[in-house]
Specification:
The structure holds 2 protein chains of 2 kinds. Chain A has helices at 9-14, 20-35, 42-65, 73-88, 94-116, 122-141, 168-190, 193-203, 205-210, 215-241, 251-264, 271-285, 292-307, 311-320; strands at residues 158-159, 163-164. By secondary structure, chain A is mainly alpha-helical. A two-stranded antiparallel ribbon of chain A has the order 1-2. Chain B is an alpha/beta fold. Chain B has 2 domains: 29-146 and 283-354, Response regulator (Rossmann fold); 149-276 and 360-387, Response regulator (Rossmann fold, 3-Layer(aba) Sandwich). Helix content of chain B is 42%, strand content 19%. Chain B has a 7-stranded mixed beta sheet with strand order 7-6-8-9-10-14-15, sandwiched between helices. Chain B has a 5-stranded parallel beta sheet with strand order 2-1-3-4-5, with helices on both faces. A 3-stranded antiparallel beta sheet of chain B has the order 11-12-13. In chain B, strand 3, helix 4 and strand 4 form a beta-alpha-beta unit. The chains are: A mainly alpha, B alpha/beta.
């Protein structure tokens, strides 16, 4: 039946247990991330991890359901504002602030998702963009978001009353743990029967309907999952940087996450992570170039799209003949 | 779970024992110029601020005095998170002692907190928000060149006193625009002027025609532009097409810089009234500075932000030399104790809330026929003396100021 809706048998069998090469890749990734803060500046890594989670969440929609959302900044930003507000004004501990932010994004995801999934293709992209712009203008005008200045000097607080997050390395490993949880949730979801149905929808929606699946419900769940995990990334980012600003709700952020996912590889498990690290790395290390930054960034994307369309991980997977 | 937690705890302990914080200076004074180098503030701050900082170091003769000074710069792309990450990296890993410039209030406020947490110094020239010396004031920050209060006050007050007593506001519809409008309106009414009306336009709008027609119909002498960047220049451009200035009304820009006037050109910008704290064509010293500056920065003449960077770096080096330390908190305290003196702003002081004070000037943009050449743009309408140019120290709600 799986082949009947165009899904690779190998992927279908993967549902029962992760294939060895993916386990190895995962192990390598975790090992790198544990060692990394001692070699690279940790705050940079924390930012990259937040965006990696954001890109992974985004990838659930575009890579596995085939829906291009152009409004994911709304979830990242909303969660950031909610978490920052909770931590700063209500004095909530970081774990509560992050959960609240995540829940806010999840709630928003269900509402927007219900309306947006009725359309597809370019219309879906437009509707999500429109919603995101509404959220942007709301954030610009609302009192509690601080308009242009954003919510500043948010306290990092003490995680579970045990870990002082003002310590850079404690914060780093907290972020790493959050990222890994999000990553594994996504991995589990897309390799479950639920994920198989999503892929079936992506490949041939009418056929999935004819097989008796309630496609709308699957899409909505995927949308909500993606929004919630984007929110988790946004809330964590707000705590790490101690601020929530308009940057995170701006439409360019929605564009950036598309680029990250494309660069790393659409519909691959590790692609968005790699893409996020590349893009944030560029942003960070090219900042010294001043005006040349945007030009260099643009050139890299042009090369990427022209020469390796599957993205870094997608191409690597093709060379190894294994889906990564 | 338990193993994971122990692993985390173990690693944390390992690291906590590792690098001990360096207390003493590493022998080099490292100045970081952090601003927008690729987008809307690239001309009024950008590379020019780096040039200004370099000139300050050279003019101070740092090398002859045995001070080793290095300058680094970066583009914060107007994103507070990018800015704060660069700042953290500079402070933590690259041993930067002081960050200067930082246009964009969002980024400046974020850095204000980071510099305070890390005991470093922050010299703000480019950002406008008066909160830096108000509610958010910090013992590690000095706000050098101007702020929103000074601009609203200078423009509002001085214009009313020089005859512009009826106003109409064109306001960008978001928090910053509202604040600018509110502050200016208060000043105008207090000075005896009258606000005949106001209209709110959406942020980043392309079409000002209906707003400009309302402004024209109000017959107010002054049209106050409570907006910034592209909105201001668009309003002025379209206003020129509608013949606003020819009809006897004047625009008052609340956040306009000489680079904006340069970009608009005199035929479009003529008659615009604005407040700045520095103009290159004030006296022989500023003219000499501008000449050297323009040679090094693509012919661009210095804005007040560039001048502020020069002046701030000069004063910073003085304090470091006197203290023989580059500890951020101590240097800022020393800077506040020492009166300032430099060729661009003359003599001045720094208040306990971190506000550097000096006179401000109300300028009117010249008609094309009055201008003698490129960058000859302003004629002085009024000088606002030091005591009146900035918000009184007791009205800022700064916790550092004892009542």
């Amino acid at each position: 039946m799986a082949t009947a809706v165009g899904v690779d048998i190998r992927e279908a069998t993967a549902a029962r247990g992760a294939p060895t090469h993916q386990v190895i890749a995962f192990g390598v990734m975790v090992a790198l991330l544990v060692v990394a803060p001692f070699l690279v500046y940790p705050v940079f890594l924390m930012k990259a991890l937040c965006f990696a989670l954001f890109a992974c969440a985004f990838n659930v929609l575009i890579g596995y359901v085939g829906l291009l959302s152009f409004g994911h900044a709304a979830f990242l930003g909303t969660a950031g504002y909610a978490a920052a507000h909770a931590a700063k004004v209500w004095g909530a501990p970081p774990e509560a602030a992050i959960l609240l932010g995540t829940a806010a994004a999840g709630g928003l995801g269900v509402v927007l998702g219900t309306l947006a999934i009725r359309s597809r293709g370019i219309y879906f992209a437009n509707i999500t963009l429109a919603f995101a712009q509404m959220i942007y203008f709301f954030s610009l005008q609302a009192k509690f978001t601080g308009g242009e200045d954003g919510i500043q000097s948010v306290p990092r607080g003490t995680l579970l009353g045990l870990f002082d997050l003002r310590q850079t390395y404690t914060m780093y490993f907290t972020v790493l743990a959050i990222f890994l949880v999000g990553f594994l949730v996504i991995y589990r979801a897309i390799h479950s029967p639920f994920g198989q149905v999503l892929k079936a929808v992506r490949e041939n929606e009418p056929r999935a309907v004819s097989l008796g699946y309630r496609v709308e419900q699957y899409k909505l769940i995927a949308f909500a999952l993606s929004a919630t995990l984007s929110g988790l990334a946004g809330a964590t980012k707000a705590i790490v940087f101690q601020l929530a600003s308009l940057t995170d709700v701006h439409w360019t952020m929605s564009g950036e996450v598309v680029l990250m996912t494309l660069l790393g590889g659409l519909g691959t498990v590790f692609g968005p992570v790699v893409g996020a690290f590349i893009l944030i790395g560029l942003e960070n290390y090219l900042a010294q170039l001043g005006a040349w930054f945007t030009i260099v960034q643009g050139a890299i994307f042009v090369v990427c799209v022209l020469t390796f369309r599957r993205g870094v991980v997608g191409e690597l997977g093709r060379l190894l003949r294994k889906p990564l | 779970m338990r193993i994971a937690r122990m692993l985390v705890l173990g690693l944390v302990a390992l690291v906590a024992a590792g690098p001990a914080a360096a207390q003493m200076s590493d022998g080099v004074i490292k100045i970081g110029v952090l601003n927008d180098q690729s987008s809307l503030y690239a001309d009024l701050a950008g590379q020019g601020s780096v040039v200004a900082a370099r000139m300050a170091v050279e003019d101070y003769g740092a090398e002859k005095k045995g001070l080793k000074v290095e300058i680094v710069s970066a583009d914060h792309q107007n994103k507070p998170d990018v800015g704060s990450q660069i700042a953290r990296q500079w402070f933590d890993a690259d041993k930067v002692d002081v960050i200067v410039d930082v246009p964009n209030s969002g980024v400046a406020l974020a850095l204000n907190q980071i510099a305070r947490d890390k005991g470093k110094a922050l010299l703000v020239s480019g950002a406008a928000t008066a909160d830096l010396t108000g509610k958010a004031c910090s013992p590690n920050t000095i706000h050098w060149t101007y702020d929103t209060w000074a601009l609203a006050n200078g423009t509002g007050n001085a214009i009313v006193k020089t005859g512009g007593d009826t106003w109409f506001f064109l306001t960008a519809d978001y928090a910053f625009g509202h604040a600018l409008e509110r502050d200016t309106e208060a000043v105008v009414t207090k000075a005896g002027g009258k606000v005949l009306g106001k209209v709110r336009h959406p942020l980043n709008t392309q079409d000002f025609s209906s707003f400009l027609l309302q402004a024209q119909a109000s017959k107010a002498k002054i049209i106050g532009l409570a907006n910034a960047g592209g909105d201001t220049t668009n309003a002025i451009k379209q206003g020129s097409e509608f013949g606003i200035v020819r009809g006897g009304q004047n625009f008052a820009g609340l956040l306009v810089f000489i680079t904006d006037v340069h970009a608009l050109g005199l035929p479009t910008a003529q008659g615009l009234i604005l407040t700045e704290t520095f103009y290159w064509d004030m006296n022989d010293k500023t003219r000499a500075f501008a000449k050297r500056f323009a040679e090094r920065d693509r012919g661009i003449h210095p804005t007040m932000i560039h001048a502020g960077v020069y002046s701030a770096v000069t004063h910073y080096l003085k304090a470091v030399e006197a203290l023989k330390s580059d500890d951020g908190t101590k240097v800022i305290a020393k800077m506040k104790d020492t009166p300032t003196d430099d060729p661009l702003f003359g003599k001045g002081t720094i208040r306990p809330d971190g506000r550097k004070v000096h006179p401000a000037y109300l300028f009117e943009v010249k008609k094309p026929t009055e201008s003698k050449g490129a960058w000859d743009y302003y004629k002085l309408r009024a000088t606002i003396p030091t005591e009146q140019a900035f918000r009184p120290v007791d009205q800022g709600e700064c916790p550092l100021v004892k009542k």
